[in-house]
From TrEMBL:
PLAT domain span: 3-121, 134-256
Protein name from the UniProt record: PLAT domain-containing protein
CDD domains xrefs: PLAT_repeat (cd01756)
One of the GO BP terms on file: signal transduction
Species: Rotaria sordida
Classification via SUPFAM superfamilies: Lipase/lipooxygenase domain (PLAT/LH2 domain), Toll/Interleukin receptor TIR domain
Length: 547
């Protein structure tokens, strides 16, 4: 059975402690070891192993049992290979525990004991226990409606009677290609927090990225995989658009399970197994262990869309579309500097708009007037896209007078720019807040997504471009020099501040107490997350923007 290992590598905050060498790790368990695994793609920073950084990596391997020791080292490459490693933390959701491996040594040929590799054992009293995760099989059924598929990144959150899994992406960017196409079924197996045997609802949506982000979802089926036990499949009907330009404009929907006849009979299941390869960035490497990397889908990979052939684009044009035949329409097509027509990819909602504004043309007639060679297809796809854009403008003008008050509210909130300032100890809850704000149309700066290059330049730019700064109050936040610099600069820039209490019964003192003394805070340590989140939205909308 496959097991997920989340590896957090903490570099010391001592001057010159970071490295740009190639780092690897070997995890030794009760049964076997993973083999040498290169730590390449950090989920938290684009430039890993810098000073005072916590870099998170995720691998999936055959079950080696509980971690007993690790070996970690580097190849001494780069212009500053010396590395002062503070500690390594390994989170294994299957066992519901985090193992902490203290280090505090230089991995260097000129410092410390002049060794490039170190063998570490878990600190006996430094393991953190939590409830183990369980695997869920999630089947997503995209509708047969014309243009139903999406290029966006899809996320889901599962709700039990009392618990929720938190929002997670259904797939990473390395295996995103070909998913969520029209009239397709995509199956995912994710290890998530156990919400109980009964699933009451799900929240599913996407990030509205890509050439064709609009998505028509038919339904979702979910079942918990319990080996040698009967499991129920819960069905969540949707049959609606998740699109900015369709239906009610929402890209996130809450779906309730229709109990009774819609539940599939219970059956026994076998948990899935992994293959024997590791994905590193865009390529694959074989190792001694059965390991596979997972990339967090932070950014949409445009090249995946561009890989689709012209023939595939042509197939996306359904049997009832219209091709404008006039020279005036061709003249309206955008041109590049060479005078050639620009090429476009059809939006997922283009077919439905064209059908409203033009008489349908049967496919047989279309194939007679449009040759199926790639050059001709490119030309006619561009013409169709131009017609779609003009139709979209006409439709927008018609709908403007019928816009509802809720739509106006949604438009206004989507223009706000927020920043979340926090310490690493509260990253999980802050990431959950970030995901919800993104889904609700806010522009949010969050260091896991946006931290690139010099840390201080990135921090200053984030503060300057934000209208409101949300900051998570914990004792570790107060003790962090970077957090203090970030929030002090926000005060200097006269940004509006909203404090979030993220440590139970925490009453800040010192510089943090001085800044937050007269501010209304949202206590995320009490009550339900959704209640606190709604209170946060009210507070965000209660005042005028400073910038």
């Amino acid at each position: 059975i496959a097991t997920t290992y989340k590896i957090s590598v903490i570099t010391s905050n001592e001057f010159g402690s970071g490295t740009n060498a190639n780092v690897y790790i070997i995890i030794f368990g009760e049964n076997n070891d993973t083999g040498k695994v290169p730590l390449v793609t950090s989920k938290t920073y684009s430039d890993p192993f810098d000073r005072d950084h916590t870099d998170v990596f995720e691998i999936e391997a055959m079950d080696i049992g509980e971690p007993k020791k690790i070996k970690i080292g580097h190849d001494d490459s780069g212009f500053r290979p010396d590395w002062l490693l503070e500690r390594v933390e390994i989170d294994v959701p299957k066992f519901g525990r985090i193992w902490i491996f203290p280090c505090g040594k230089w991995l260097s040929t000129s410092k410390g004991d002049c060794q490039l590799e170190v063998e570490l054992y878990p600190q006996s009293m430094a393991t953190e226990a939590y409830k183990p995760y369980v695997p869920y099989e999630i089947k997503v059924f995209t509708s047969k409606v014309s243009g139903a598929g999406t290029d966006a990144n899809v996320h889901i959150e599962i709700y039990g009677v009392e618990k929720t899994t938190g929002q997670v992406m259904l797939c990473g960017k390395t295996n995103r290609k070909g998913k969520f196409r029209t009239d397709s079924v995509d199956t995912f197996v994710l290890e998530l927090e156990d919400v109980g045997k009964d699933i009451e609802k799900i929240r599913i949506g996407h990030d509205n990225r890509g050439f064709g982000a609009s998505w028509h979802l038919d339904h979702v089926e979910i079942r918990r995989l319990d080996k040698n036990q009967k499991t129920k499949t819960f069905i969540f009907p949707c049959r609606r658009w998740l699109a900015k330009g369709e239906d009610d404009g929402s890209i996130v929907r809450d779906l309730l399970s229709e109990k009774g006849q819609l539940q599939v009979p219970e059956r026994y299941d076998e948990c899935p197994k992994t293959n024997n390869q590791v994905e590193v960035g865009g390529g694959t490497c074989d190792f001694n262990g059965n390991v596979r990397f997972h990339d967090q889908p932070f950014k949409h990979k445009t090249s995946e869309i561009l890989e689709q052939t012209v023939e595939d684009v042509y197939k996306d044009i359904q049997e009832s579309v219209s091709i404008p035949q006039t020279d005036s329409m061709i003249a309206c097509m955008p041109t590049n500097h060479a005078g050639h027509s620009s090429h476009f990819s059809l939006s997922s909602s283009s077919s439905s708009l064209l059908e409203q504004s033009r008489a349908p043309m049967p496919l047989a007639q279309l194939t007679q007037s449009v040759p199926l060679d790639p050059k001709s297809v490119r030309k006619h796809v561009a013409i169709v896209h131009t017609n779609f854009c003009l139709g979209l403008c006409r439709r927008s003008q018609q709908n403007q007078s019928r816009a509802t008050q809720s739509d106006q509210h949604h438009t206004s909130t989507s223009k706000r720019r927020l920043m979340i300032s926090y310490n690493w100890d509260s990253q999980t809850i802050c990431k959950k807040i970030y995901d919800r704000l993104q889904s609700d149309g806010y522009t949010v700066w969050f260091d896991v997504q946006n931290m690139h290059g010099c840390i201080y330049t990135a921090m200053a730019k984030a503060v300057e471009q934000s209208q409101i700064v949300l900051f998570g109050m914990t004792e570790k936040y107060r003790q962090s020099d970077n957090c203090r610099k970030e929030l002090t600069y926000a005060c200097k820039q006269r940004k509006r501040l909203i404090p979030l209490r993220l440590q139970e019964k925490y009453d800040p003192n010192g510089w943090l107490g001085l800044i937050s003394a007269e501010l209304l805070y949202i206590d995320f340590t009490k009550r339900d997350f959704d209640i606190n989140y709604r209170n946060l939205l009210k507070e965000i909308e209660s005042g005028e923007n400073v910038v």
